[in-house]
Write the structure tokens for this entry.
Amino acid sequence: MYELFVLGQLMDHEMAGYQLRKALKAVVGQEQTVSYGVLYPLLERLSQAGDIILTTTDTQRPKKVATLTAQGRAHFKELVLVPVTINKQAQLTFQIKCEFLHLLSVADQRTVLQDFRAFSHFQLQNLQAVRDYLTDHPRMVPSDVADSLQVNQLQQVRAQAQDDWLVERIANLEKKA
């Protein structure tokens, strides 16, 4: 997921590690940002793999600047189109993919958005199943059920807003086609 983000960010221009970390924070939020202890080894691995070139600036405060290679561009295109595995990182991975839709063809944008929409439906179905369970489960303390149903409602509203956003984006792509 972070590999996809770094390669996508570098598609437009070279960036230093500090800039990459700030960009990720802007896209995914403070709670999901990457530490420098993860970022710089990732940059080294991408460099060793030939996806980026790392140069160190000759300034008073030297910094490593990453530049994408042709191989890195191809690797980005490959990663952005890989179906997302449904796990605890799926939501974040889809958000990162959406950050780079402008780099994709209309057909590839549609693929990413439709995959995200399928995930969104999966989320809504799971939330409804939880709601059904909470409503029909007689062994729980009533106040716990009430609180859980409130949280479930919040989660459903968020998931529905995401699905509505995806429907709109897909419809806009259809207008372009």
